[in-house]
Amino acid sequence: MRHKNLVINFRDNGLFLLIVLLMLYPLWQPHQLVVLSDWSFHAARVEEILHNLTTGHWLTSIATRTFQGTGVGSFLFYPTPLLYLWAGLRLISSPLTAFFIWLGVLIWLGLMLSFYCCYHLTHRRRQALIFTLAYNLLPYRLMLGLNVFTLAEFVATLFLPLVFLGFYQLLNGRYADWPLLAIGMTLIGYTHLLTAILTVEIMIAGLIIYCLYARHFSRQQCWAFFKSILLCNCLTLPIIVPFLTDFIGQSISTVAQGIAFLLPFNDVVLNSIGNQLAPDVGLLLLLPIICFSRLNSHGHGYQLAVVIGVLLMLLATGIFPWPLLSHTSLAVVQMPYRYLSYAGLFLAVAFSKLGDNVLTTSLFKGRSALSLSLILVTFGGLYFGEMATTINRNRTGNHLTALAAPHHTGDALPEAFLLNNQNYHTQFAYRVKWGETDYFPQKSLTHAESIIRNQAYLAQHPVKLPKTAAANKVSYTVKVSQHSQLDLPIVRYRHTTLTVDGHKRSIQTSSRGTVQTSLTAGIHRISVSYQPSIWLIVSYFIAGTTWLGLVLSYAWHRKLPH
């Protein structure tokens, strides 16, 4: 029996690997990439991690080579764990190949997780396959990952099936599955904090509705949820601690608040009907809404999934009164169409049942190869229909010339630009399109231009200083003719440290929110670095020990007789 299961698992892995290759090969084959939106932010973070890894430094806290070397904490406050795989692949392959291998590995992982989450509930492999393809080929998610490169949100939503499987199991009394919820939320937390917040919001709403409907919440459920929350907190401590030590109460800026890009409901519906690569759920996932009554014979669970999916679709559009909530905590979503990933998840659950019902009719009885072919051809055709413009854009370069070096330090990247393996590093001489000043101190925002252009001030006079970058450290050499104040273009955090001529100095904060110090006449060697708190070191130990405990526990339970 174990041998048979191994063969089946190998077949599933092979099928999903083939799907990933078919998805990504047309994009990789031209060896060039038209990029836009969030690409430059994530590519710059990977580049910084790569440089640090090559010098033997595993922990990256501040930007010293990318982001114009301003010392911004894009690594402290924006999760990086899954980027280390991308950076590691850069060590052994060309830049674009490393990116596509990284993306392929994560998409493959997402396919496998989706498949086993659905199979865990239904015990039907065909239904699990339909769900897997319906969710992972959701037009909105494909747009995020393969078109506009909003990579953190795309990767985070790969793990939503695992989270909601764990959540569903706890609500239905299957308390042994409590680690699933914790591990799913941890993987999201390692990738995109906003997705983690939205996921918690939806689960809180679900818990409230459940308690009102069921009118009870057992001690066992409370204990299971408590264990899941505790485990998740232990695993995500390295993400949480920097916010406790360097963010809260330190007047650090975040991404802009408020609601933007509010879509009309009819745009989402029309784009879905056209199966457009846009914020929509796609043509197939409208079918459970149309065929709602047909799901009645399978219990209320699938109809409930449709209702939740429709409510989340409405929440993603202008039908919901978002303008009235712009100054509330709900506005953290920024772009309400982010809820479409969740809508697609629930609609995919219902669609998988409809699809499985069709393929169990007498027409397909005993013809498993025919039903598998129909599934793959249907989803394959829809995928290449959605992606045709993107694939062609990538192949032709979209009439763009290859990105050239900037004229001045800190020039902004174009809206869209063409990258290849030869000019890949050119992008890092520019400021990133979105996120260059995220997590600057509030004081620094009004002086961002001078900081990004590496403008120092000596005795209040602008100067350009030669600098040397290392892992989490920037060093300057400065000649001073008389006692003066030096204001460096490095933003300051609570655990930023300063040494002058090898001696540690207390740091002053300039009016720009940057590192400032007093110097006597002479030539001085100044180094600014970030020193992780002891709590951050402890958090890595706790998280690592917890992961090790999980792996050993899983291995132990696998050995026990069933």
TrEMBL record:
What protein am I looking at? YfhO family protein
The alphabetized UniProt keywords are:
Membrane, Transmembrane, Transmembrane helix
Please verify whether the record's keywords include Transmembrane helix.
yes
* Regions that span the bilayer: 12-28, 99-121, 142-167, 187-212, 224-241, 301-325, 337-355, 367-385, 534-556
